[in-house]
Write a structure and sequence with these properties.
Radius of gyration: 23 Å
Helix content: 40-55%
Distance between the termini: 55 Å
Strand content: 15-25%
Number of helices: 12
Largest sheet: 6 strands, mixed
């Protein structure tokens, strides 16, 4: 047996059998793993489990009583699931059948974001395949967030199935004829300006919706404590900047980029809802500003090619977005708003060092730039 930590869960992986011959040994191994991580929730992975006897079932019931709540047993084969069902143990255990395995061979790629790749699965569905850093718990949270957002009235895709794609996990979204906005802009650059103007109206509509979720401010402060690639001074500056932002109860996507916005039958929809929370719109707009303005300049500085088509495309997109969002073409006014957005865009990318492969020179550059902005004085938000 082996174990691994996934978020707040300690996942223990069963071997092929749990029966009279090895039940005592299995229990001793489980207790050893649990003692080493006493503050984590216990969860079991039964992907390799071919047989479990009544002795094994009693062991799980014993562990369930000790935990005082239902235990998750995931990746259960149909044969083993039948044992749990006929014995009535599904009333006491959260038995989750093995995920459907899907191959992306031959599938059309319709978009790519920082967390994964989007494929056209069939005429009615798309498949988002997440990077290997995304655990099963992360992906399930993403699906639950998508479902909650949909029920809250947000314009988001319906997420209904978590699947395996090789060693990675994915979510199947029900969407007809959908394609990500970055792909549209790369293939038809003449649509950047008109579609961006419509996109601003769409985003403003989403930001007006009240959402009962975690505080964007508090979540960022907590994440900063886990960002080991950052220095203590940066974390302190981050906390002070974040605490200056007023608390809002409105929806924020918190990973708003063109790969996470799809167009379906002329309407925009959001996908990738794993980081949604409630807060000031600065948390979304600053990310767009960073992705399609600051990041473009950093890539040029590092002699790297933009992944959003020709270098002029992100510049056109951001200029159009900013003019439409702030309802002005005045250069001085736009520069004022960009100064407000810059520190928050830097905070976004520095927190992303936990999950994204950002090169050390870029991390040092962003930390230095954040300190420089803090020294000059952070402009209060007035939008």
């Amino acid at each position: 047996m082996t174990s691994q930590v996934e978020g707040k869960n300690l996942v223990i992986f069963f071997d092929k059998r749990v029966d009279t011959n090895n039940a005592a040994e299995v229990e001793a191994e489980i207790n050893k793993f649990a003692a080493a991580s006493p503050n984590l929730n216990l969860e079991f992975d039964a992907e390799n489990l071919e047989y479990i006897s009544s002795v094994g079932l009693r062991l799980l019931m014993k562990l369930r009583k000790r935990a005082k709540k239902n235990l998750v047993v995931r990746n259960v084969s149909n044969n083993v699931a039948e044992v749990f069902e006929t014995s009535g143990f599904t009333k006491f255990l959260d038995v989750q059948k093995k995920l459907r395995q899907i191959s992306v061979d031959g599938l059309q790629q319709i978009g790519r974001g920082s967390s994964g790749v989007v494929y056209r699965l069939d005429a009615e569905n798309i498949l988002k395949v997440y990077n290997q850093k995304w655990t099963l718990a992360d992906v399930k949270t993403e699906r639950e967030n998508s479902q909650q957002a949909f029920l809250s009235g947000l314009d988001t895709a319906i997420a209904y199935d978590v699947v395996r794609v090789g060693e990675n996990f994915g979510i199947v979204y029900e969407m007809l004829n959908a394609v990500t906005l970055d792909k549209i802009f790369i293939e038809t650059p003449e649509k950047i300006v008109p579609y961006t103007k419509k996109l601003v109206a769409f985003i403003k509509k989403q930001h007006q919706i009240e959402y009962d979720g975690d505080s964007c401010i508090q979540r960022r402060i907590e994440i900063s404590k886990k960002a080991l690639k950052l220095n203590d001074e940066t974390r302190e500056i981050m906390a002070k900047i974040l605490q200056s932002v007023p608390e809002y109860k409105n929806f924020c996507h918190c990973d708003l980029n063109l790969g996470n916005i799809v167009l379906q039958d002329g309407n925009f929809l959001l996908i990738d809802m794993g980081e949604i929370c409630c807060g000031h719109p600065v948390f979304d707009i600053s990310w767009i500003y960073f992705m399609y303005n600051i990041r473009r300049r950093v890539l040029q500085m590092m002699n790297k090619k933009s992944d959003f088509g020709p270098a002029v495309m992100p510049e056109i997109f951001w200029q159009t977005f900013a003019q439409e969002y702030f309802n002005t073409t005045d250069a001085a006014t736009l520069a004022h708003f960009e100064r407000e957005l810059l520190p928050h865009g830097l905070i976004n990318v520095l927190l992303a060092t936990i999950s994204r492969n950002i090169p050390p020179p870029a991390i040092e550059y962003y930390q230095g730039l954040l300190k420089q902005e803090w020294t000059k004085g952070i402009a209060p938000l007035d939008f």
